[in-house]
Amino acid sequence: MDINGSVAIVTGASSGIGAATARALAAEGAKVVLLARRQDRIVKLAAELENAIAIKCDVTNKDQVKSAVEQALQAHGRIDIVVNNAGQALQASIEEINPDDFRDIFELNVVAPLVMMQTVIPHMRTQGGGSFVNISSGIWFHPLSESGAYSATKAAISILTGVAQVDLADTNIAVSLMYPFITETELVDSIKAGRESAERIEAPIAAERQPPELVASKILELIKTGEKQGDLVPKKYGGTYEG
């Protein structure tokens, strides 16, 4: 897909990978629609970009998602790209996972991207094509202590994306999956529960943290090529990244 002149929705655009992706898309000429709950941040980011609008949206709220998509269509008449980036972590042992916390992050990490896809796909069908990029995580490549809940949500979005690729194979709608490695974001700061555990697990590989701009560049590559998946997980951890 040619990004220049396209209309792109980015969820979780207030920081980290979302903000970096929004900047990268805008730099290549996309009209970016920034979605996040922290309105002050996306308003500030929109002001920095060439052609962007900020819409406060809790992507776990179906009505807010529908409204945000309608506003994007009113502003630009089409939606070419959706980057489902919004997400939250949770660290706890299997014995200590709070089921309510698990439901909350499953709603955000899995159900919300599904609802966004369901809301936008009809419009992409009508206009003749589009691109989705769903963000998973390399964390589920190998079981890590106390990461069961978060890893399960990322495994779920990976499977959901794979099925979407099959379901939409006869359309011009590409569905890609991105596996970031440990990234310099606010994920640990905004963790649902288990911050100390997350910091402890990350400590041995902290020096290998990657900038969100690197993830953004890989996301743009997926959009341009329509490839089914990409990752930044180093080979020694089971990925393909050689950087």
> How many beta-strand elements?
7
Number of helices: 7
Helical content, roughly?
Answer: 40-55%
Strand order of the largest sheet: 3-2-1-4-5-6-7
Q: Give the uncertain stretches in residue-range form.
A: none
Please state the average pLDDT score: 92
CATH class: Alpha Beta
| Architecture per CATH nomenclature, i.e. the level-2 architecture | 3-Layer(aba) Sandwich
Radius of gyration: 17 Å
- Measured distance between first and last alpha carbons: 25 Å
Q: Largest sheet, described in full?
A: 7 strands, parallel
What is the CATH third-level topology name?
Rossmann fold
What gross morphology would you assign?
globular
Order of helices and strands: EHEHEHEHEHEHHE
The fourth-level CATH homologous superfamily is NAD(P)-binding Rossmann-like Domain
**Structural class of the secondary elements?**
alpha/beta
- Structural domains: how many: 1
Tell me what portion of residues adopts beta-strand conformation. 5-15%
Features:
243 residues, seven-stranded parallel sheet, Rossmann fold, alpha/beta
Write the layout of secondary structure elements.
Elements: E1 7-11, H1 16-27, E2 31-36, H2 39-48, E3 52-56, H3 62-76, E4 81-84, H4 99-127, E5 130-135, H5 148-167, E6 173-179, H6 195-202, H7 212-225, E7 229-231
Helix pairs in contact: 1-7, 3-4, 4-5
